[in-house]
Amino acid sequence: MSFSQKNTPLLTQLSKLAFKQEAPFYAPGHKKGRGINSHFKALLGENVFKADLPELPELDNLFNPEGVIKEAQDLASHAFGAEHTWFLANGSTSGIIASILATCSEGDKIILPRNVHQSAIFGLILSGAEPIFINPEYDRDFDLFYNLSTTQIIKALDNNSRVKAVLLVSPTYHGICANVREIAYCLHNYNIPLIVDEAHGGHFHFHSDLPMSALEAEADVVIQSTHKVLGAMTQASMLHLQGSLVSSEKISRALQMVQSSSPNYLLLASLDSARQQMATEGESLLRNTLDLALIAREKLSKLDYLSVLNFEQKKDNFNNLDLTRLTINVSKLGLTGYEADEILNTKLNVTCELPSLKTLTFIISIGNNLDDINKLIEGLTKLEKYRKKVNQNDIFITNFPTPKLKITPRQAFYAETITLRQSQAINHISGETICPYPPGIPVIMAGELITQDAIASLQNIINHGGTITGASDSSLQTLKVVNS
Where does the Orn/Lys/Arg decarboxylases family 1 pyridoxal-P attachment site domain lie (predicted)? Predict the structure, then answer.
C-alpha cells in the first residue's frame, strides 16, 4: 500500500475527534478539559485537553493497529528506511527493553558497551540475559567515551558462546558514532542481530552531511528518541526493524509488556507529525541546523580557553561525529561543567543539555535559530570572566572506573540486600545501580563489585554539583549490597 508522506492520518483523526460535539462518557476523567484545574488550563489552553483522548474506535489501537496508527507507522517506516516501525509512547527506554526481550532469554548472552544507558540494564534484569560488557576507549581530555570497535566485538564473539545479540550505542550522548556498517556486516556473518540505541540520531537519515543512519548501515533493530532531536513531544520515540534475524511478532509482544495499555495519543500524534515534517522538509530544516552548528563551532574554536570536540580522522571506535552535537571543554577556566552550566543558566540565559565534570554538551536542532546561536556564543565568551585559579587535578577525574561484574543484574535485582556504610561496602557486590543523570550511564551497576574508584568518581560528581540517581542514599554515606 502506498501513502503520501504529506498525509498525517493519526494527527488528522485526532484533530477531528477533539472538536467533535458529543457527550463523552469515556476516560480520561477530565472529559476533553471540562474537569481540568483552571490554572493548568490557563497554562496550556483548551485544545490540548480536547485532544487528550483514549483508544476510541476511530483512533485505532497501538497494540493491534489496523487503522490510522497502522497507516502512520507504515508512513514512518518508509520515511526512515525501515521494514517495520512501532510508535513508542514510553520513550526509547521501552524500545531498548523490548529489543532485548525479543532477542535474548534467560542464560543467553548479549554484547554491549559498559557505557550503555540504564534502560539496557533494565532489559537485562527482565530478560535474564547475561551481559558481556566491553569498555570503550576513554578520552581523559574530554572525560567521555568513544565507541565500540569491530575488533573488540569480534574478540568477544570468539571468546563467548550463546551470544544472541549485540547492542551498540551510536551516536553516543556526545554525538560519537561507531562504524555501524562494518559491525553489522561482521555480525550478520555470525547470524547475530545488531540492536542500535540511536536515541540521539533520529535525524541522520534526512541529510547527507550527517552520519549514516543505523538503518542505512543495515542494523537490524534501531531505537530512536524522536523527541530528542526532531519535532515530537517528550517521551515519543520509534522502534525500527529490518531483516529476518529478529521476529517482528516478538517485538510486538515485548512492547505490550513495557508500554502503557493506555498510551497518550498526543504523543502518538506528535510522532505522526514529526515524520511528516521530516519527510517533506527534513533536508532544508537540517541544512539550516547544520549551518547554525558550523557558525557556533567556528566562533567557539577561536576562544583559546575552550576546547571544542571535533572529528579529525576515522578511527575504529570513532567513525564519525554528529556536527549538530556541540561538546565544549571548559576545564581550562578552572570550572567544572556543572559550575559553568549554573553560570550560563542563571546569569546568561543559556541552558545546555548535559553538564559533566569537564564539559558542556549542547543539542543544536531544527528548533534552534540564529538568535539562539548568538546567545550561545555570547554566553560562552562571557564565561571567561568567571575563570578560577585552581589545580585542575584536584577537581577533575583522570580515569573512569570499570568495576567487575560478579553476578548478573537480574540475580542482583532479586537478591537479598543489606545496607552498609560506604567504607564497609567496598569490595561487596552492589545491590543497586547508581548513575549520574543525565546521561544515565551507570558508574556502579547492580551485580558489580563496589570499588573505591567508583565511589570516588560518584562522590566527585556530587561534590561539584552533579546529580545521581538509583542510590537508596543520595549522599552515598551508605550503600545497598548483596547479602552473600
Answer: 8-312
The dihedrals phi and psi of 161, each to the nearest 5 degrees, come to -105, 170
Mean pLDDT over the full length of the chain: 94
- Cell numbers for 251, please give them: 517485538
Contact 153, 132 (CB under 8 A): no
Residue by residue, DSSP assigns 106-135 as TT-EEEEETT--HHHHHHHHHH-PEEEEEP
Confidence (pTM): 0.95
pLDDT, tens only, 408-426:
999 999 999 999 999 999 9
C-beta separation of 448 from 401 below 8 A: no
Query: Are β-strands 237-241 and 84-88 bridged in parallel, bridged antiparallel, or unpaired?
Result: antiparallel
Q: What is the pLDDT of residues 301-356, one digit of tens each?
A: 999 999 999 987 667 778 899 999 999 999 999 999 999 999 999 999 999 999 99
Rounded to whole angstroms, how far apart are CA atoms 200 and 438? 13
Q: Helix or strand or coil: residue 73?
A: helix
Q: What's the pLDDT tens digit per position in 428-463? A: 999 999 988 878 788 999 999 999 989 988 988 888
Distance, CA of 7 to CA of 271 (rounded, Å)? 13
**Cell triple for residue 442?**
551507570
Determine the Cα–Cα distance for residues 374 and 190; give it in Å rounded to an integer: 50
**Number of neighbouring beta carbons within 10 Å of residue 66:** 9
Beta bridge partners of 85: 240
